[in-house]
Design a protein that fits this description.
The chain has 200 residues and is mainly alpha-helical. 46% of the residues lie in helices and 0% in strands. The protein has helices at residues 71-74, 83-86, 91-118, 124-160, 182-199.
């Protein structure tokens, strides 16, 4: 005859605790005496929450604070910036344009997530086209800044070997001191003498 195996003692204090089956702890704890808060089902009795209109999270929405935009509104956008236009912009303008693109992409990502969550079934193509235009602008900004970096590096390498440029100059000091050669000074003096002779 087969003997039943003796069940070992389980030392897990959380054994049998399940929020799905609503099984509580086997022994009372310190928080057991504290009553649980009850939800307020009446909307009129709920406390009003004050919202800061200048909060940073509003940057993920349009100025009208709409959650979703219509496909007609999403399709109304201009062409992306090109590198030829961005080459003439200052560093401050490129910096501002870059973060404007980041803000726009945050708004588009928020709307795209909400469309998937709500399963609206419309507007995905318009958002994708708009997002692609913004990404092309950001690629053009990177291209323009990369060109400026290579131009700066080439100028720096030339300035290191140039005697007229002081690479260790402090802010406010003169970093460029042109050196006039003696031959060029003589040539200027000869030209001045010829001008004086002609006028006499």
């Amino acid at each position: 005859m087969q003997q039943r195996r003796r069940r070992k003692r389980d030392n897990n204090m959380y054994r049998g605790v399940s929020p799905l089956r609503r099984t509580d702890l086997r022994y009372p704890v310190e928080m057991s005496k504290v009553p649980l808060p009850q939800p307020v089902l009446d909307p009129e009795r709920r406390s009003k929450v004050e919202i800061d209109q200048s909060h940073g999270l509003w940057g993920f929405f349009r100025e009208d604070k709409k959650l979703l935009s219509t496909p007609e509104e999403a399709s109304q956008f201009g062409r992306p910036w090109v590198v030829e236009e961005l080459r003439h912009k200052s560093w401050e303008d490129l910096h501002s344009l870059w973060w404007a693109c980041c803000k726009e992409r945050n708004i588009l990502a928020t709307q795209s997530y909400e469309r998937e969550r709500l399963k609206t079934g419309y507007g995905a193509a318009e958002l994708a086209d708009r997002d692609e235009a913004v990404k092309r602008t950001q690629r053009a900004i990177k291209h323009a800044l990369t060109e400026r970096w290579y131009a700066w590096e080439e100028a720096r390498k030339i300035a290191v070997d140039d005697e007229e440029v002081d690479m260790n100059a402090e802010p406010g000091e003169r970093a460029y001191s042109p050196v006039y050669h003696r031959d060029s000074v003589f040539e200027v003096d000869e030209l001045d003498d010829k001008k004086v002779a002609k006028s006499a």
